[in-house]
Amino acid sequence: MRKRYFAVPALIASATLTLVGCATPASTGSGAAIKIVTTTTQVADLTRAVVGDAPDVSLTQLIQPNESAHSYDPSVADLTALASADVLVINGVGLEEWLDDAIDASGFTGVTIDASSDVTVLGSARGTDQAGESAGHTDGDPHIWTDVRNAETIVKTVEAGLAGAEGASASNVALFAANAAAYSATLASLDGWIRDNIDAVPAAERLLVSNHDAIGYYTTAYGITYVGAVIPSFDDNAEPSAAAIDTLVTDIRATGVQAVFSEASLSPKTADTIAKEANVKVYSGDDALYVDSLGPPGSAGDTYLKAQIHNTTLILESWGATPAALPADLR
């Protein structure tokens, strides 16, 4: 793990007066009975679904849309929020490599909810022979949210953790449970829609190439053959070697892959180069996938539900399939 050094608690304390009243849009109050800090965009969105409009609860999201969770560098404002938090909700599986240093620097002493605690963690989608290229994440693939059933598990974990938090009133505990149940039902509907649509495509045609090795839970859950990644690593900051690029182009040609998918939070340059060399379509810009990060407000991927629908729709279209209409609870 790369060591980072952040602002010391004394600096955080001196900055507090400046920061009071300057909370980010992700924060919903400073006098709440339960102050929650979340790390990634996905974890924040799933936690919001559980919290809903519960009174006396604030939620601050550290990582903003299109920021990398792998190389995130917390600000003084982030460390200040963490210092006063009662609950910290993390993705886990080593995704937040900067987290231990941030906790030490902030002096956080609250409860941590690890979203991955009840999730079965997978290795590389590209096979064990290439797993060494993802050597920064020895615990396995941290992109657990790409399988919707894992999202259902995360919601249950968050709900249980918040229900046990100090300061959680009986009425809020009941509200957390009701919100989690309602949202889990919507997730089940989403999972069914994805599964039905993908199952309708012949297995031999379900081929996928993405920008980096971050969609393995999705391909495993829904029976998709993952041909390869532009960046053959769990870390979106890694760089592909010339040999890796040549191998991917060869695999694309050999398997009949029709498209290469970029990600909304990453530069499409290398994906575009590979697609051109392999003579296939590249999906980028508004047609990029939302994987490592959800999108900014107003985008096609600004919530977990919308991101999964967006991604699945584009993947189906790349196979020449027309997605079925969305269930009423997903429209």
From TrEMBL:
Record GO biological process: cell adhesion; metal ion transport
Native organism: Cryobacterium psychrophilum
Gene Ontology CC annotation, any one: cell envelope
GO molecular function: metal ion binding
Subcellular location: Cell envelope
Name recorded for this polypeptide: Zinc ABC transporter substrate-binding protein
UniProt entry tagged with the keyword Glycosyltransferase: no
Protein family according to the UniProt entry: Belongs to the bacterial solute-binding protein 9 family.
Alphabetized InterPro entries for the sequence: AdhesinB, Bact_metal-bind_prot9, Lipoprotein_PsaA-like, ZnuA-like
A Pfam match: ZnuA
Domain of life per record: Bacteria
UniProt keyword annotations, A-Z: Metal-binding, Signal, Transport
Principal subcellular localization: other
Membrane-spanning ranges: none
Residues of the signal peptide: 1-28
Lineage summary: Bacteria, Bacillati, Actinomycetota, Actinomycetes, Micrococcales
